[in-house]
Amino acid sequence: MQTPTPGRQPGLRGRTAAWRSRTLAGAAAAGHDLRSPLRLGRKGLAIGVDIGGTKVAAGVVDAEGRILSQAKRSTPGNDPRAVEQVIVELVEELGAGHRIWSVGIGAAGWMDLDGATVLFSPHLAWRNEPLRDNLQRLLRRPVLLTNDADAAAWAEWRFGAGQGQDRLVCITLGTGIGGAMVLDGRVERGRFGVAGEFGHQIIMPGGHRCECGNRGCWEQYASGNALGREARELAAANSPVAQELLKAVDGDVGRITGVIVTELAKAGDPTSRELLEDVGEWLGLGLANLAAALDPGKFVIGGGLCDAGELLVAPARKAFARNLTGRGFRPAAEIELAALGPNAGLIGAADLSRVSSRMHT
Questions:
Q1: Which residues in 218-236 are b (16+ Cβ under 10 Å) and which e?
Q2: What tens digit of pLDDT does each residue of 105-116 get?
C-alpha cells in the first residue's frame, strides 16, 4: 500500500520541509496534488486494530492521531475465524459511539503487495489468509491490512518522533526485532512486500539458533528474549553477581525475563545494567549496519524493551558511532526513542486506512 507524501506534518507549526517542497513541486509538474488525499482524510474517524499474539487492541483515532476510545480482547488462540470475530466485535463496540469511516488492521506477518492477504503470521494460524476481503464483507466498511511494524512506523512519522524525516527507519524491540521504513512519505515494503525484517540480518555467523531457522540473527542478541536468555544463563551458573536476579524470582531461574532484568536495572542493580548495556551494544552494531545500507536521517526505537530508556539507548549510540562506516567523515543518523508507546500500531493502522480509503473514494 503506497501512501501520498504530505506537504505538512502535524506538529511542524505549518512549516514545509525543503524535501517536501521538492517532492510536491515534482508532483505538481506531473499534474498531481499530493496534499489532497491527506487533507480529505482529516474529515473522518477511523478504527485501528493491532493484533498481537496475546491480545487484540483497538481504538477510535482522529486525524491528529489522538485515541478517542479504546478496547481490548484476548487473542483467541490460533483459529483465524475466531480472530476475525473478535475484530468485528471490537469494531462494532467502538463504532457504536462514533461515525467511523474506515478500519485499519495491523498484524505481525507478511502481507502481499495488494494488502489483501496475510501470507504468513508467526503468532497466528494465518497462511495465505484473505483477511482484508473477509473483514470488509463482515464490517461493510473499507478495510486496510498492513504489517504492524509498518503501521507503527507510519504513526511515528506522522505524529511522533519521526516527524519531518524523509528517510525514517523504525526498530521495534520486543520478543524479537521488528522494523519498517518510511521513505519520501510512503511505507517502503520492498519488491515482494516483506521488507523490514531487520531482526534477521545475520550479525554473528554460527551464533545462536533463531526461530527463523538461521543462526546468529540480530534479534538473538538485541531483543527482550536475548536479554532474558543472558540473564538466565548467568543465574543458572549461580554467579555471585546474579544474586539480585535470583532473589527477584525466588530462585526460579526459568522465571527470569527481559522485563525483570529491565526493572532491576532501573532500580540500580549493576549486573542488570551491565546486561542491558551488552544488549545496547549489539543494538548499536546492527543500526550501524542498517545505516551503511539505508542511510536514514533518523532511527526511532520502540517496543517493550525501550522501557529501559537511556540505559539501553546510550550504549547503543556509542556502539553505533564506533561501528559506523565512514565515521568522522559523514553525517550520522539520530537515534531516538519512539514517542507513541504501545499504541503506535493501532494509531498508524487507523491513519493509513483513512488516507487510503479517501484516496480511493
A1: bbbbbbbbbbbbbbbebbe
A2: 998 888 888 889
As a whole number of angstroms, the distance between CA 277 and CA 194 comes to 30
237-270 exposure pattern, b = at least 16 Cβ within 10 A, e = fewer: eeeeebebbbebbeeebeebbbebbbebbeeebe
* Sign of torsion over alpha carbons 344, 359, 108, 7: negative
Distance CA 359, CA 361 (A): 6
**What is the spatial distance between Cα 69 and Cα 54, in angstroms, rounded to a whole number?**
21
| Amino acid, single-letter form, for residue 132 | R
Q: DSSP of 286-336, one letter per residue?
A: HHHHHHHHH--SEEEEESGGGGGTHHHHHHHHHHHHHH-TTTTSS---EEE
Q: What is the pLDDT of residues 232-283, one digit of tens each?
A: 999 999 999 999 999 999 999 999 999 999 999 999 999 999 999 999 999 9
Report how far apart, in Å, the C-alpha atoms of 47 and of each of 84, 97, 110, 233 are.
Answer: 15, 12, 21, 43
CB 302 within 8 A of CB 344: yes
CA distance 145 to 86: 16
What element of type H or E holds 143? Answer: strand 143-147
pTM: 0.82
Side chain identity, residue 3: T
pLDDT tens per residue, range 38-65: 443 445 899 999 998 778 999 999 999 9
The answer to whether residues 163 and 157 touch, using CB atoms and an 8 Å cutoff, is yes
